[in-house]
Amino acid sequence: MEFIETLINGLSMGSTYAVIALGYTMVYGIAKMLNFAHGDVIMVGGYLIYVSMVATKNPFIALGAAVVLCILLGVTIEKIAYKPLRGASPLAVLITAIGVSYLLQSSAQMIFGSAPKMVNIAELGNLKFAGLSIPVYTLITLGCSVIIMTALSIFVKYTKTGRAMIAVSEDKGAAQLMGINVNRIIMITFAIGSGLAAFAGLFMLMKSPSLSNTLGAMPGIKAFTAAVIGGIGSIPGAMLGGILMGVVEAVSYTIPPIAPYTDAIEFMLLIVILLVRPTGILGKKRREKV
Length: 290
What we know:
This protein is mostly helical. The protein contains 11 helices and 4 strands, in the order H-H-H-H-E-E-E-H-H-H-H-E-H-H-H. It has one domain.
């Protein structure tokens, strides 16, 4: 029974990583850049939920406000920080992303202070079933994540905008010649990733109500690791990598001798998988044009 509870908790944590990893993998797959500020958009989403909860006491209004404002933040970051660097070297874009990350962290610290804020989303309790005791927030996180990932997969595969995203990810130049507005597609990709960041912030606050300006730092790194494990640029790969990371983390925490080294084990998993399959589990080899 304990193992099943651990597995469910791992799936819940992994689905949170998967939602975050989707933001990384979509931006990389379409814009071919690593948005290391993505984890800090999660943190901003957390503070927006905190402010909205103080004002309204309604978690649904808080989530809606966070999603809308995170989307606006993501679009603004893309327009101001990344769009002028569209033709720049990957190193310049990477340094800019790190700069945006520190800007968001420092801004949050100046506005809200360095002391952690406590965010009480709702008293959900535990669900007891067949001898299992499972936190309700775990089931909510798992269910919402499955719905989000399914909806995103359907959107990308069956809508006109989604197919345009696939075209841009395959060949920007050819997509532009076919009449696709590449800048608009990249902007929509940032908007979707930032909206997902708000959901990830809610999931994390339901698990641990402590909020600080570094809330998204380590989860962001782990989610990026999950995206690379699954195959950076692959939406199913981000899901698979996130779930795998979450399950490994949950199981490691239940084994006392290795629990202190859980983070090291997760990053070691990345090294092992990349040694065996450099493109990630579901990643595809791309031919570079000369």
